[in-house]
TrEMBL record:
Keywords for this protein: Membrane, Transmembrane, Transmembrane helix
Residues of the DUF4367 domain: 129-223
Transmembrane segments: 67-88
Stated name of the protein: DUF4367 domain-containing protein
Domain of life: Bacteria
Organism per entry: Clostridioides difficile NAP08
Family matches, as InterPro entries: DUF4367 (IPR025377)
Pfam families reported for this sequence: DUF4367 (PF14285)
Length: 237
């Protein structure tokens, strides 16, 4: 066994060392994800109100946190994979490729979208592009900075809209046992994901990432809300 000195001078981080660290970091990430029981837990209205207040107090200008939306039957997990996760600088193109492959391999029941930008590329600091079309019975009820907008109707059905600038991160959507369909939104390829009564519509253009999601709670409403989300998506330009 190789014994490492406590001296920090002339310390080299090798590819072999990084390969040993990555599985450990991955296990930490997986252990941190909520269990099925936690995802199905029904929180009190008081708890949800407090959580919304806490979220509003957070300053989010970009995807720098791991964000989890809880609902009765589904959870959309945005897992941000950053170089700082390993507290080292990963500048090797080969290492970036291995990290991408690792994400795909670990989350076998999920779909991972990995976006990469040049390290020296400046942020565009874009303002949120809002949907010009909103279903007639829906009104905006909440907003988190220029990041997330929530709409709700009188039947308490919510439509969530997320917008962010593309950066070096990964977005992972739950597609296990889901119906996945490729559609077009303003000339961009989009993923329509239907799982139970939950719907997600995800796409990106050259600069931004977009996600519309809802849970209509009734299977006979799926077609209606699929059309509504597509209309909303096409109005975002």
């Amino acid at each position: 066994m190789e014994i490492l000195s406590n001296k920090k001078d002339n310390f080299d981080i090798t590819d072999d060392m990084l390969q040993e660290i990555i599985p450990i970091a991955t296990k930490i990430i997986l252990d941190d994800l909520p269990s099925d029981d936690e995802l199905n837990h029904i929180f009190s209205k008081s708890f949800e109100r407090k959580m919304k207040k806490l979220i509003k107090q957070q300053k989010r200008s970009s995807l720098t946190n791991k964000i989890i939306f809880y609902s009765k039957r589904t959870a959309i997990v945005f897992l941000i994979v950053l170089a700082s996760l390993f507290t080292i600088t990963m500048s090797s193109e080969a290492l970036r490729t291995r990290l991408y492959e690792l994400v795909i391999r670990v989350y076998e029941d999920l779909t991972s979208f990995v976006f990469s930008t040049n390290d020296g590329e400046e942020s565009l600091n874009l303002k949120i592009i809002e949907p010009k079309y909103i279903p007639n019975d829906f009104k905006e009820v909440d907003r988190v900075d220029n990041f997330i907008i929530n709409y709700k109707n009188k039947n308490n059905i919510e439509i969530n809209y997320m917008f962010c600038e593309i950066s070096s991160n990964s977005i992972i959507l739950d597609t296990e046992n889901a119906k996945v369909e490729n559609i077009s939104i303003n000339g961009n390829r989009a993923k329509y994901i239907e799982k139970g009564t939950s719907i997600q519509l995800f796409w990106n253009d050259k600069n931004c990432i977009y996600l519309l999601s809802t849970d209509c709670y009734k299977e006979d409403l799926l077609k209606k809300y699929k059309n509504e989300l597509i209309k909303m998506g096409k109005s975002i330009k």
